[in-house]
Amino acid sequence: MTSVTSEIKYFSWVSIIRLGLVQTALGAIVVLTTSTLNRIMVVEYALPAILPGALVGLHYAIQMTRPRWGYGADVGGRRTPWIVGGMMVLAIGGFLAALGTALMADQFAVGLCVTILAFLLIGLGVGAAGTSLLTLLAVRVAPNRRPAAASIVWIMMIAGFVVTAIAAGSQLDPYTPTRLVAVSASVSIVALLVATCSVWGIEGKPLPNSVDVSGGKANKPDFKKVFLEVWAEKKARQFTIFVFVSMLAYSAQDLILEPFAGLVFGMTPGESTKLTGVQNGGVMLGMIMVAVVGSAIGGKRLGSMRFWAVGGCLASAFAFVGLAISGNFSDVWPLRANVFFLGLSNGAFAVAAIGSMMGLASDGGQSREGTRMGLWGASQAIAFGLGGFLGTVAVDVARAILGESSIAYGSVFGCAALLFAVSAALAWQVAPPAELKAERETSPETATGDISLQPAE
Length: 457
Hints:
Elements: H1 13-44, H2 50-61, H3 66-76, H4 80-103, H5 108-140, H6 146-172, H7 177-199, H8 223-232, H9 234-251, H10 257-265, H11 269-296, H12 305-326, H13 335-361, H14 369-402, H15 405-429, H16 433-442, H17 444-447
Helix pairs in contact: 1-2, 1-4, 1-5, 1-6, 1-7, 2-5, 2-14, 3-5, 3-14, 4-5, 4-7, 5-13, 5-14, 6-7, 6-11, 6-13, 9-13, 9-14, 9-15, 10-11, 11-13, 12-13, 12-15, 14-15
């Protein structure tokens, strides 16, 4: 297969920031549906917490369709229509989620049906837009800019969380169902406009290695065949397993860290909320650190995504070990520093994982970047959905068996540490071909001719 790398026009920093704005818009809609509506159902309507938990789990479950959306973009060779279309579906889903929640106040059954439909649309929209956005970045961002690009895009998504939470929160008080629907509609419309304007015209013509379907259905490859071909690729399969295990560990603490701080360390709700802020600050700093160091010394081992993925996983495991034993020393343990270090490690690992996705997406050729990215996105979504749920179940079971809260939470944190240690071993086995080549070319053995470069699998 003839290389087309020389024909690809890589994105400028301005274009990368424009795509980051799409993530900002995506995050703006998602944060209202997964946090604000969650609180309203549980607090204002006194509904069981399992209801919003199940709805959030549904939006993750439907993202198992991500490989299909990535395949569709691969076939056409263009990602912009899938990004815009996905954002439209997401915006409609976000509005319907608020409408359904508002209806629950007086017409619970009708509201629940509308909300279920809404979360299905949210999952479909996030899957279609998110997969195609990451694929476009993977194909059109120069290798030396991938660490920074991954950080920029994810930091801008978190910025979407923060800005929306502050802006929408100021407009929701005093709460009324009508106000909720109005605020959600406004956020959805603004987010869709921002995303559409940001991505419009950025992609240009289809890349030269896209699949030509001008001859009709006969030239269109079968999705099942393409998916099985991608799954048969050793690196794609290994990376899928790495994403699942690491994201399972990453999300296991989402719903238990604040209760742990309250039960074991006696923190008030305000103090535990600030603790989450400390963790998110660490995440942001970890992402920035990878962006700066990775771009400054890209091509060397200390700038490689494999180095940061492995290091981030090992550091996260170490931080979880600290949390696991902290309950025994609650009077003197530096919990805030421990949680900050956990966030720092998580941020470095998460960005490195995304950067590795970008490098591996084109490995193997045959215009399968979107299908590979979809496979990894589906693995991540399933892990996120399971991680938070299993973390809470494990704590409840451990407390019932062991009695002591500190031991129960410590056992779950210990399991997360073990999963991150396994993730580090998996990350070491998989690295983008360009990084492997750079590592081998700079190693002493290669310099003396003892190692020959092998073609990527």
